[in-house]
Hints:
By secondary structure, the chain is of the alpha/beta class. The chain is built from 14 helices and 16 strands. Bound molecules: heme C. The site of heme C has 24 residues, from helix 3 and helix 4.
Amino acid sequence: MSPGGRLAGVAIAAVLVATAFASxxxxxxxxxxxxxxxxxxxxxxxxxxxxxGPQGPELRxxxxxxxxxxxxxxxxxxxxxxxxxxxxxxxxRRPALDAEALARALEEGIGLxxxxxxxxxPRYALAPELHAALLAELDRIGRRAVEGVESRxxxxxxxxxxxxxxxxxxxxxxxxxxxxxxxxxxxHREIELLLLPAEPEAALRRLETEPAxxxxxxxAPPALLAALRARGLPELFPIRPQxxxxxxxxxxxxxxxxxxxxxxxxxxAEDLGGRxxxxxxxxxxxxxxxxxxxARWPELARSEAEADALLLLTPxxxxxxxxxxxxxxxxxxxxxxTPLPAAVEALVVTDPRALPPxxxxxxxxxxxxxxxxxxxxxLVRHATAALLLLETALRRLGRDVTRARLxxxxxELGLVTTGLVPPWSSRPGREAGAALLRLDRPSGARRVDPWxxxxxxxxxxxxxxx
Length: 466
Ligand code: HEC
């Protein structure tokens, strides 16, 4: 990393830590006049007054805040004749509730169906623009509600078909929630984690009744993933490698597969001295994207049979891997069901979990979160980084959280250094790279190349450190 890049990374890490500890008190004004009126009975910071019945006593401020009776999410509240009805249904304003109907209810005590309202509904004399602001606030509450965001709570959904991931991540997320709770919530909201069933229909039904802002997703069966993606929920977990194109709602923390593929192709070409035969196992999309990289070595020829090296970028049976030199992302090899053929003498794997040299130490908050689980490995590190980034983005948004704004806020974080995972930015960019681990199988010697990005010059002298 250039000194400038390093500095930027450290500065962002400092911001990350600073914002993680700042107890932000978002002003209601940031939400517009409707929010202050709805939640606190305030206009320009001053309490409004309203009467209970035409000649009734005047009450002020919080006592006549709409949310006090109708509920913070306009879901309705109270009992019996004095029950304040819901003003929203499934995220939408009740059809009859327009500016005129609102004015009639507030000023004359006439309900949406034309009947006289119970005196428990106060009488207000508000400027017409405040009626408009109230309706806008109701619309906003409705939009948030269908995205799992309430005034005091925010819902994230997850699915962990893999029991090991579940065992590692569940305690981490609980620790994070406990930490936030001790601090009074994340911008006054508590975080609820909804564990979705693995069966697609059931998962969607669950999201219908309990909408979620985003998915904390490490891995999911393809059918479930497709169903969830069709819902447009942002995906915030991170290390399942990206292989083909994916929706614009995915934010991941690992090196994208193309970056790993280019690094491995470059290492292979360099090791072979730019000539010889190699075999490529990849899905067509990745193969096409890799074309320009391989074209840099015209004397390196593809061969389906005899080859000096294999570039393995898609799961393959062990039998297909019998070549002297094998280049592959580490997670693919980790999923091999059978031992690697003895014919493989040199093994070069990308390890997207390795940190570039000079990475800052994790923040105290990160250490508190990772906790004892540090030894548990890369999944927990990535998950911790993801939670910290999510937290930082949410703090920046203050109260007005929507899926689109969350994705925007994550993107605005730019290149982030957590000290837990390689420098991260929400979309693959120049900064994405990885470290290559080299294993000489006959001698058992291991070597880790310096962390590098595709297109970087080859490491001059390879240090023989672990
Ligand atoms: C002290 C409690 C209370 C407060 C504060 C309050 N309401 Fe009400 N509201 C009620 C009750 C109770 C009803 C239902 C009365 C009935 O059904 O006869 C009602 C009814 C309504 C209705 C008519 C709904 C329908 O189905 O006809 C609207 C609209 C309404 N409120 C809007 C508001 C708004 C906007 C505010 C804030 C400016 C507000 N209310 C503040 C108690 C309250």
